[in-house]
Structure prediction request, 708 residues.
Amino acid sequence: MIKSIWDSTPVVRAFIPYLAGILLAIHSGLDNPKLIILLPLALLLCLVLLRFKKIAYSYRYAFISGLLISTMFFALGLMMTYINTPINKENHFSQFDQNFKWATVRIYEPPQEKEKTIKLQVKVYSLTDSNHTISVSGKAICYLEKTKKALLLKYNDELIIPFVFNDIKPPGNPDEFNYKRYLSFHGIYQQAYISSGQWFKIKHHTSKWFYTFTDRLRIHFNATLKRYLGQGREYKVAAALLLGERGLLDKDLIRAYSGAGAMHVLAVSGLHIGLVYGLLWIIFNALPFLKRRKYLKAILLLSAIWIYASITGLSASVSRAAIMLSFMIGSKMLNRHSSLFNSIIASAFILTLNNPYSVTEIGFLLSYLAVSGIVIIQPKLYRLVYTRFWLIDKIWMLACVSISAQLSTFPIAILFFHQFPIYFLFSNLIVIPMATLILYTGISLFALSWIPQLSKLIAQFLYFFIHLLNQSIDKINLLPSALLTGLELSKVETIIIFISMLMLTLFILRNQFSMLIGSFLGLLLFITSLSFTHIKQQRQKEFIVYNISKVTAFQFLQGTSSCLIADSTLIANKDKMLFHIKHHWWKRGLKQVKIVASKKMDAGLTECLQNKIYEKGHYFNFQQYKLFVVDDPLPEMNIETPEVMDCILIAKSPPVTIKNLLLFFKPRLIIFDHSNRKYLIDKWIASCKSLKIPYFNAAKKAFVWSFN
Prediction:
């Protein structure tokens, strides 16, 4: 089947070098426009080759034309990535100095309310100083101080703000999520924090008629759900499942669906688009005046699919499904055969031509891997079992789809999310039929919302179905070991798994014994990699001072055991712990972690790391590494001989000076963490420089000392 796909889909052969060009440009930072010359050069050589028919049409020299065409598409990938990298443009606002006082921006995404700020994603259109205004381009993030005025801001509002943008900071802790890199893939490189009274709204822009139309539909449908379902869990799930409004989901709901392996139903995807298409196909075929009007039927189908896709936000999976269905509808209209795999790759081609950085989005990867797995694996898997019973057959078919999608996506899911839902098969057998019922009931509610009594009855069914779905998800999460967390794969190990799985698939589909051997060797290589990682983890020894705003957190790590001493506010904040610290724990393969609140340090830490830490008060001794934590005023006493310390950690902005500190200690290194006030850190750093004492500012980047 793989060979037939390769032979029958030239789009695949063109897409591979094109994708290679995109990935090389993104991950190597290639930004030299001179590389674009490869595209016209390869095209010119292809045209020259056509002049020599004996070579151009000879099987013996086919590799030459193939190489030139591949080079052309590789160069196209490089070129499209360069063109679509905003910072490469000469008029990008970051290229101009701070002599400009004001910037004109427009909000291009709905504002997000945070604890103390309003987060805006804006496009910068012009910069102004006292003399003139210039047009610029680029995107940025603005954090406005939360006020009543700021809460009223909407999508497409135009503002004037101070030109005070700064580069987004890189990750401050080991193995922390690289938010700076993530934003750069979305064309955002700078951000600004703006106080109240420093900005003002100019006007509100109206969108183009199509976007205005779909936006009004979304608002109307959302209001309908809210009117009939209230604002509880049922409404939030309905808004996410039917309209793609995932921002309404609270953290508990996300954890519940993620733990059950059912998060995909809350993100409008190819499943939803396919269900909408199936419903419309049945309805349109049942209408007498459309039965023989295939062109009108195709136009209505395409219009309905793209309107729904636009209402739900045109995510990568939705766009992929909409484009694929567009190809299928077009081929049926023209009485042409459409290769499903050709449509899949063609949709990826179109999406990446529009935005090459789509390939960096996890949703894009998961969507295409899932649908590819379903197309390649599911048919063979489904044919393994035959039954005459309709219900069992449908259950088996659904199970095959679920297994195929999970097999093709689990390495990426572990790589990025570090978890695996054990009961994914069981949950999908419940979730997908329930999601189908909810989708069709929701569409019925939208279509008949103008009939009060009927819509009220439909809404009761919708509420019941969603409530039942939520209850099922909660029950699945209560099952033992429902979600494996803390799983860790490197990028190399992920690639090895995919290659091994591909070889195993080839063996199953084509009975090639060499593919089985290759798959076995890949598995052996994977096990070897895990073994080396395990040996390395058993030998690791580290002392870390984390870089987390306004809190103290430091850790002693030996082997797969660790002891974290941190502020209670951080320990209680699961999201901060996950974002700043836990990825490092998973990377290090930690099995035992003792967490102690910093205010309870006197309780003793001798249980940590199998009695490898000696602790008394603010003094720690780990692997003969002496640490003293200064977070209180120093006592007034005379010390004849200052005690030698490997490290002094200053935290909580204590009223101390470096000179006073030297009366008590002779430190080899002084560390200032992020819990200190900035002006005090600057003052202490100046003293360290004048006294020639080594220091480290952990308010900028985590301090990591490896004993290996």
